[in-house]
Amino acid sequence: MKGEDVAGLLSLAGQTALVAGGSGGIGSATASLLARAGARVLSVDRPGLAAPPGVEGLACDLADAGAFEALFAAIRSRTDRLDLLVHAAGITRDAVLWKTSDEDWSNVLEVNLGSAFRLLRGATPLLRARGGAVVLISSINGERGKFGQSSYAASKAGMIGLARSAARELGRFGVRVNVVAPGLVRTAMTAALAQEHRDQAVAETVLGRAAEPEDVAHAVLFLCSDLARHVTGQVLRVDGGQLMA
After folding, report:
1. Which domain holds residue 15?
2. Is 152 among the residues known to form the active site?
3. Which one of the listed residues 152, 167, 216, 238 is annotated catalytic?
4. E-strand stretches of the chain
5. Of 129, 183, 134, residue with least CA distance to 163
6. What CATH number did the domain enclosing 126 receive?
7. Domain count, the chain
8. Could you list the mean pLDDT of each consecutive 10-residue stretch along the chain, which spans 245 residues?
9. Cβ(181)–Cβ(158) below 8 Å
10. Residue 243 falls within a domain, yes or no?
11. Residue 91 CB partners (closer than 8 Å, separation 6+)
12. Is 130 among the domain residues?
């Protein structure tokens, strides 16, 4: 690796990436950036949602545990390799603990955590063949908790435990598994929050602004690239200093 130029270290040329939630704010920015870095990118998202330009779309209801067999059959019909897996799918059903229904709890856990597990499990045979990188998009609220977000925080905390366990299990095959934990990011999901809550989150940062989806995508590219070839089992916060501990 000595003497290799920085552009070469960031290049994903010849690699194939699967991005879950590739039509959302963070997922779309990530899928587009990985494609610009040279990867062939497959985006998985709900039926009816379009993939970003230059990205191949696959439809799958990530809340349906029974849909993943067909999803991986579709993936294998398109490619015999998978080098990168990014999970950027997520939903919220915010409510205080005593007002959270079983249905809302289950939906959040299935989409945010259950689908990450099932995608990682299904992708493992392909990843083990050549080695590669996995990045799960968690949240600083999975580390600190958040009032009114017991289901969301639990799902995002679970992703950290899943990633660290997978990093231990897959490291011997040359597969790295890491987590990106954003703070407040300017997406359609956070735009639905009350202005006072968005203002409070920005006030918590030391950089004085919310993240853009591209800020998170840049961290994902780093973790997917050879610049991070000796990084695994880690949580990289992209939060402008919103949570420092």
Report:
1. 6-237
2. yes
3. 152
4. 16-20, 40-45, 56-59, 84-87, 132-137, 175-182, 235-238
5. 134
6. 3.40.50.720
7. 1
8. 75 97 95 98 94 94 95 96 97 95 97 97 96 98 95 98 98 98 89 85 94 97 97 98 88
9. no
10. no
11. 107, 108, 111, 112, 189
12. yes
